[in-house]
From TrEMBL:
Source taxon at top rank: Bacteria
Pfam families: ABC_tran
Alphabetized GO MF terms: ATP binding; ATP hydrolysis activity
Family matches, as CDD domains: ABC_NrtD_SsuB_transporters (cd03293)
Protein name: Hydroxymethylpyrimidine ABC transporter, ATPase component
Keywords in alphabetical order: ATP-binding, Nucleotide-binding, Transport
Domain called ABC transporter: residue spans: 5-237
UniProt-listed InterPro entries: AAA+_ATPase, ABC_transporter-like_ATP-bd, ABC_transporter-like_CS, ABC_transporter_ATP-bind, P-loop_NTPase
SMART domains xref list: AAA
Length: 255
């Protein structure tokens, strides 16, 4: 397995009007190609900052970071697809055009692009909604479309920042199953930020626990379940034990 992401003592200080804010400190982390990593940590500990640095939307201020064969901190790249807490679809475009946006911001979409977008919509059960506007879709459907948009330009890294936080529990479960399938079918490397420990355990192969600000990595837990996961897994004693262990780490080490 080769590493896709290598962070070495990465740190981030925001300079603000009222002084410096140390958001991240000494983050050393390797993520292998094809791996699924989840990150949990208290509010304000720097999780979104970490994703933004990986997406080159924000620059780190110390240490080094490598993504694929480039140093982080250069210009924004095509290598990354990002899903935010809100779907952030453009209301005046139909779903297909929204999914194609990462392509059309750069060039005219080709027939192959359109086909790739339709394949993604098909994968998440939205092909019939390709020509609807976002407000004609439910919140869960919009978030599925946002996942398609993050994947349409074939990024090597899929970043998800609390993508299902605003959804009801049942929709969230269904989307977790879907994300697991998408991850298996597309062979992407994925980083998920979540406030839900069960969601982290269900989806990830490794869960990273971060401390309160300044955010540091205080624990890494390997999740030994196979790649294919179904909701029954959540009812098993192994699942409960791992979730309880991470909750304890969270309470003892992350505070
Ligand atoms: N653009 C910015 N300028 C200044 N400070 C910032 C900026 N963005 C984030 N911060 C600060 O950096 C810290 C980490 O913020 P970040 O958004 O990364 O946290 P988070 O872990 O994602 O929190 P949450 O779980 O609530 O989303 C916070 O103290 C925040 O106030
Ligand atoms: Mg955040």
């Amino acid at each position: 397995m080769s590493a896709l992401v290598e962070l070495d003592r990465l740190s981030k200080v925001y300079s603000t009007r009222t002084g410096d804010v140390v958001a991240l400190q000494g983050i050393t982390l390797t993520i292998d190609e094809g791996e699924f990593v989840a990150v949990v940590g208290p509010s304000g500990c720097g999780k979104t900052t970490l994703l933004k640095i990986l997406a080159n939307l924000e620059q780190h201020t110390g240490g080094t970071g490598i993504l694929g064969n480039r140093e982080l901190g250069g210009k924004a790249s095509d290598d990354v697809g990002m899903v935010f807490q809100k779907a952030t679809l453009l209301p005046w475009l139909d779903i297909l055009a929204n999914v194609l946006l990462p392509v059309t911001l750069k060039r005219r979409a080709s027939a192959a692009d359109r086909e790739a977008a339709m394949d993604l919509l098909r994968m998440v059960g939205l092909e019939e909604f390709a020509h609807k506007r976002p407000d004609e879709l439910s919140g869960g459907m919009q978030q599925r479309a946002a996942i398609c948009r993050a994947l349409v330009h074939h990024p090597s890294l899929l970043l998800m920042d609390e993508p299902f936080g605003a959804l009801d529990a049942m929709t969230r479960d269904a989307l977790n199953v879907e994300v697991n399938r998408i991850w298996r079918e597309t062979h992407k490397t994925a980083v998920l930020i979540t406030h839900s420990i069960p969601e982290a355990v269900f989806l990830a192969q490794r869960v990273i626990v971060m401390s309160a600000r300044p955010g540091r990595i205080v624990e890494e837990i390997e999740i030994p379940f196979g790649r294919e996961r179904t909701l029954e897994l959540m009812g098993t004693p192994e699942f409960a034990a791992l979730s309880a262990r991470i909750r304890r780490d969270f309470e003892v080490k992350a505070a």
